[in-house]
Amino acid sequence: MKEVLLPELAESVVEGEILKWLVQEGDTIALEQPLCEVMTDKVTVELPSPVAGVLSRRLAGEGDVVAVHAAIALIDETGGAAAAPAPAATAPAPAAAPLSTQAQEEREQVGGSIVEAGHLQKGADDDSTSLFKAFSSDEKVQVQGLGARQPAAPAAPTQPTRADGRVLAVPAARQLARELNLDLTQVRGSGPNGRIRVSDVLAHQGINQGQSAPAQPAAPAQAPAQAAQPAAAPAAKAPAAGGLPVAPVQYRTPKGYEHLEDRVPLRGMRRAISNQMQASHLYTVRTLTVDEVNLSKLVEFRARVKDDAAAAGVKLSYLPFIFKAVAVALRKFPSLNTSFDEATQEIVQKRYYNIGMAVATDAGLTVPVLKDVNHKSVFDLAREVSDLAVRAQGGKLQADELAGSTFSVTNIGSIGALFSFPIINVPDAAILGIHSIQKRPIVDEYDNIVVAHMMYLSLSFDHRLVDGAEAARFCKEVIRLLENPDRLMLEAM
């Protein structure tokens, strides 16, 4: 019997979601025949069979998040009938788990499965990790008052680990353990493949404080009971001195409207976006600065070179100029080109300039990355922008094309918004929102009222890493370069 393991599909990917099985139990499988579709960091790939034989058993169901190197299927290489079930030790959570259990696990992931998959640098912590929906503060794990606890160290349980040797745990559990000064190797995990969840950390802490351990494994089954007690919800928002986390928000259908609602599992691209947004909400101190830029000279410059670009087979938009201006400004204001390593409490200062470009697709928002923008010409960037946008729409991007950004840009103006408060694409320190170019009257340097091509800029930044004054100066530098395209071309070389 051959175990099919989830391989390392890209550097730093630690788990993937089984989107769809392409074969059924009992089917005869050829060597390299696609078995299932796996999603990692919003990239979907087909996993081929490593051997020929008969699919004896699927160990993971559609929608399950599976750790790298975990078994997802058994194949009988003899070609006989389906084999006996695998030992329980090798099988992850059953595919038919109740939706409430799956939803509970996803809520506790706090940026988990897909967030860990591709946006982290090699060796970075998986809870320090494209975009743009805010989450309610009710979902944040509140740990005030718990940091002073010094739990006694019980005998260490046997712990499953990742490929890099670290204990398997969801990001929120790691964060909570740090706040509690708790060694995760002392905590027994109840999640898939032994992964430590928030409830496991809380249960362990309760035992060490001489309290009765909360019945955390039964939490999914208790969710309806919580919903039936609306009076408890306000109390959950203001935790007592113990600092227990806010209960997950439980939606209740208004009476009489049950037949007018449909429930769709949070899966695939939407779950990846949800995890990324929740990580951004929990692990950044986000604030905003707004400015505007006069693009009249850039509009004229682009009109002059547009024919040359077309002759070179390039569709020239304004984005390549903006990317070049951002790269130049990042060199002068390096704090906006950093990340924060939550595990080591270190600021990661980067001397390379990879710009993430938010692209709206039918499946959801994704952020392909233009690498080494400072080393590429405007025409090179124009070609790359077009290529990445087309392949993003078709779902053809590779995992490495979605990883490694140091700063991001989102073009809100393409859909007509006046201005926005974009959500940071963690682990980046900042994101720049660009908006519609509109003709507006302004007063020029000679006190004349003239018509200009104006555009709003909105910069979201992590206030832990970037001071407000430096963020404002960064915006002014971007404005200076875009308002003087000849100067931009000189400084960007």
Keywords:
7-stranded mixed beta sheet; globular; 19 strands; 12 helices; 28% helix; 493 residues; 4-stranded antiparallel beta sheet; alpha+beta
Descriptive account of the structure:
- Residues 84-110, 208-240 are annotated as: Disordered.
- This protein has helices spanning 99-109, 113-118, 171-179, 198-208, 219-227, 232-237, 268-283, 296-311, 319-332, 378-393, 468-483, 485-491, and strands at residues 2-5, 15-21, 28-29, 34-40, 43-48, 53-58, 65-67, 71-76, 286-294, 338-341, 346-349, 355-357, 359-361, 364-366, 369-370, 407-411, 430-434, 438-443, 449-462.
- By secondary structure, it is of the alpha+beta class.
- The protein is globular, with a radius of gyration of 25 Å.
- The relative contact order is 0.12.
Class from helix and strand fractions = alpha+beta
Secondary structure: number of strands? 19
Helix content bin: 25-40%
Average of pLDDT:
76
Beta-strand content: 15-25%
What overall form do the CA principal axes indicate?
globular
- Rounded to the nearest angstrom, the distance between the terminal CA atoms is 59 Å
Quaternary structure type: single chain
